[in-house]
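U., I forgot to send this yesterday:
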Amino acid sequence: MGFRDLSTGQLRREAPFLIADAFRSNNHQPTPNNMLINSPTISPKQVGLALIISIMAAEAIPMIARARSRENFQHLRTAQPSVIAQRNTIEVSPTGSVRTITAALQQATSGTTIQLAPGTYGPSETFPLDLKEGVILKGNESALGAGVVITGGGRHLSRTYSNQNVVIVAHPNTEIIGVTVTNPNTRGTGIWVENADTIVRNSSFIDNNREGIFAAGGAVPKIENNQFINNKGNGVTLVGQSSGQVRGNVFDNTGFGVTVGKEAAPLIVSNQIKNNRAGIMINDQARPTLQDNTIENNKEYGIFVGKEAQPNLLNNTFRSNGQDVYDQKTAPPPPPLPPEPESLPPAP
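Result:
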């Protein structure tokens, strides 16, 4: 009968020295290996018991090792997402090691989340903030950006509208979540989305000199659960061939809540559009779908429809507007519409 060597795991013919340790409790001294079997003080039953203990101990070692290996693997697999998340997150705070969004963007790559601590981000920033492809800019999502304020603006050269003044320029696969955006500059825009599928969610656009969000070209934004308050021009403007969704937002006390022009065809659904000069303006050949919106207390019109526009109106609720729906195809000419965004003069 062979026995397993604890040090090598190999089968051996003689009993290992471990057997002698089984008898220390009986006041026996360890006996050399080659004398153990023939010792007159040890019975055959004791020898057999010792051999069984030795074999069981030897067999347990690989099992313990395998268990520890599995435990280590499980720990690594559990810890890995946290490690990856930390590696892809840049913490920004006015009092931290990274104090500006501008500095964080210089370090960011696709997949990076820039997490903003409460504070005002403006005087030390370089505007516009050019949000690299695949980057997420995140503040206080649960409070619609309260306490995380980005204010300012800088010149942006648009492909279709030339010089603009913008806080944030969004690119494909970017997200802007839980921030407050204000551009007090002349014809100032909060976020510029051109030919991109940007997500803007749970944020606030307050006191922008022109509009909160401008979508142009082939933009496909998702503008969800935001509030647009006291913007002088529009809450959201969608022009060109832009589409996407404007869903679940509040437009309150701004110029025009939503303006859709050129050939844009977005889905505008489940918004509250109230206390504005006009709720929704639809011009040119635009073909938006307006569904389940509540449009109330707008001074001039709930919805204005230009001569060539073809909106699809589904189950919207109108209350106390100057006029709920004004369709230029069947009504006399309205007051003049606000002009298209003008290009700012070249920088000196």
